Automatic annotation (TrEMBL), chains A, B:
Residues where ATP binds: R210, A211, E212, R218, H219, L220, E358, G406, L407, E408, R409
PANTHER family noted in UniProt: ASPARTATE--TRNA LIGASE, CYTOPLASMIC, ASPARTYL-TRNA SYNTHETASE
Subcellular locations according to the entry: Cytoplasm
GO MF annotation list: aspartate-tRNA ligase activity; aspartate-tRNA(Asn) ligase activity; ATP binding; RNA binding
EC number(s) stated in the UniProt entry for this protein: 6.1.1.23
Name recorded for this polypeptide: Aspartate--tRNA(Asp/Asn) ligase
Main location: cytoplasm
Organism: Dictyobacter arantiisoli
Important for tRNA non-discrimination, annotated site positions: P81
Protein function: Aspartyl-tRNA synthetase with relaxed tRNA specificity since it is able to aspartylate not only its cognate tRNA(Asp) but also tRNA(Asn). Reaction proceeds in two steps: L-aspartate is first activated by ATP to form Asp-AMP and then transferred to the acceptor end of tRNA(Asp/Asn).
Amino acid sequence: MERIRTSEISSHVGTRIRVAGWLHSFRRLGGITFLVVRDGWGIMQAVAESEAEIAPLLAAEAGLESIIVIEGQVIGTAQAPGGCELHDLSIEILSPISEVPPIMLNKTKLNAQPATLLDHAPVANRHPQRRAIFRLSAGIIAAYRRILTERNFTEIQTPKIVAAATESGANVFQLDYFGRPAYLAQSPQFYKQIMVGVFERVFEVGHVFRAEPHDTTRHLNEYISLDAEFGFIDNHTTVMALLRDVIGFILNSLSENYSPELELLHTRIPTMPAEVPSIHFADAQELILKLHQVDVRGEPDLSPQDERWLGAWAQQEFQSDFLFVTGYPMRKRPFYTHPDPQCPEYSNSFDLLFRGTELVTGGQRLHLHQDYIVTLERAHLPIAAFDYYLEAFKYGMPPHGGFAIGLERLLMQLLGIQNVKLTATFPRDLNRLVP
Amino acid sequence: MERIRTSEISSHVGTRIRVAGWLHSFRRLGGITFLVVRDGWGIMQAVAESEAEIAPLLAAEAGLESIIVIEGQVIGTAQAPGGCELHDLSIEILSPISEVPPIMLNKTKLNAQPATLLDHAPVANRHPQRRAIFRLSAGIIAAYRRILTERNFTEIQTPKIVAAATESGANVFQLDYFGRPAYLAQSPQFYKQIMVGVFERVFEVGHVFRAEPHDTTRHLNEYISLDAEFGFIDNHTTVMALLRDVIGFILNSLSENYSPELELLHTRIPTMPAEVPSIHFADAQELILKLHQVDVRGEPDLSPQDERWLGAWAQQEFQSDFLFVTGYPMRKRPFYTHPDPQCPEYSNSFDLLFRGTELVTGGQRLHLHQDYIVTLERAHLPIAAFDYYLEAFKYGMPPHGGFAIGLERLLMQLLGIQNVKLTATFPRDLNRLVP
């Protein structure tokens, strides 16, 4: 008999079917035993009305998380989760488990400390709420790929072992590359720009590595970056328009295709306004002075408090969870940032704030070889180390720009999760290399 | 005027349009100038019949690879590549280029040594033949994801920084993780198995790192692995059936959707037989004795010559480019390999040969906790180092198995490319960390 997934049971009412999975819960009430089976897609209840039916479980001393196969008759019933359950059971045990799992997997709400969840991730990740987070993560990536592929972007894979730090010398992991030092890529920035010279429009979903020595709820030392970069833009506003569509598509896609997961997590996905409000960095500082009597003019960046104020303003003024801040001062942006031609101390860059916290950074990049030479010299950076990168510009690059979305941070903010580590299956932090 | 991609020109005959891209070639014949523009999707010809039309190019001394924008009238003509060309040109230069590129990008056939192509990858990758290879690479990944998603597999991302070598202590890159040693993942094997405990069916498209100190045409130190792993299998034959469908789907998808790329590379994609022939390892050794009078019985593995003989046999006997060899001896397979229950010195594993060369390895894994303990002890491996991995088995794992496809090797073999490094955009080898 072919195996049926628990998520498909409701279309088999009245027939005898076969399910397989983990023994999710087991309760005896008088002469009746309620079993719940969990498979890769969901859970379903099975009801044994005789001792004979559950005899194989008892004989094998098979406890929770045992791998079992159950055949039974599908009965529609309003009381059962999902509206139906199995009766007249025939049970087979594939892997009996006797030890009690370190995490209670069959409580609707996952009740454990973050450290416990992370230490026991191989088991904790089986909890329906953990699975929901990771399915949403896969959903974000799938939607990201779909919209960019539709927009004629080509997916690329860039090297993760690199000869030099990407953006600065700090916070990179060093490795031994056949006796020479090498580094783990902090970002695909240089390579995605080079690949604009090849395909014009490229994106990457890949690991990036940051050796930041901070153990906080906001830091991961390895995470997934959703990068995009494309040519023949007017300026950073072309990039912002794409980003708006990309985030909007992701949000819609989650709302439409992941209702069960969102229900399990008691979350609603926000919507993206057709027009995202936007404010220039300098105007944002003026606004903060006006609204809060705090003078941050002259500061080269926004503080978390500034961002919260701006987020509240966007909410109140435009009923928008999202706000673009544009034109960050050049001195706080990386060397490849394109200046604002009208006002070169400001840049053609932006941050996208979500509910008062930075979600995505992006902008226009320099595209003329000579501009790179001047900028690198001014920054006292060693031009020779950038030779391979500069070769792309030496032989023709269009005006271009892009952005990078941190997958885990996006999940954290969308789902209101307090600790970014809980958005990854097996996070890496200052003290955690296993599991 | 909105920009049109070169690949879309033929639907605009008779109208005035705008294209933008790289100046791919420039030839003056008498009073007429033929320009070819290359954009991210293809090339198109533009014809200037007056000096005035090309005056901006001459004034800027804009050579090949300059970034230009051309407006013109689309004229249908059999002689032009793609069947149409632009006339009555108005040309604008975005980035003039004066230096001659180190690679001739406008010759149909790419004529350069591999070392030159790799040293100058930022420019060489722009050649239409190089682009075709990378588009096919993206096409393989997209098809891989599509078929597995349709089969209810969930995409995962597993850690690339790990506490210990995955399969053995050899050939791993070591890095400094905040003062402690850590390693780059050789494969997602352990994590994908753990995640079978979560989602049952998982796949990953990700970087793997191998510190093999060989500089050959077959080695890459960083490559993309297409991994899959799934539970509730009967044995390795369930895995083989999936692999057949996956490779078959990839091949069909390339044939159907990538004709221009395949034409540029003068390649035809093979087809996957409905039934892939299969031979047991022991029978393969007997066959080699019978056909070639060479006695390799007792050898623990097949040599490249053995594989070529078997490939020729599959071709002759079954007209198949593909052949499964099953049941490799346990002593040459990794510790998590499931033995053949009938004959425990052989394994429930397989290799898929393509035209006499190994293409994919896979098989069934152990799934009982106790079997892992016994196997690790027998192999004198430190059980404590595997604690996090063993936790998955301690709390219930179904019979499962999977495979790993090396993306670059698959491309190399499908396209008949002699050097695997030429299938990657920016390959890493013993001596190459840039570009």
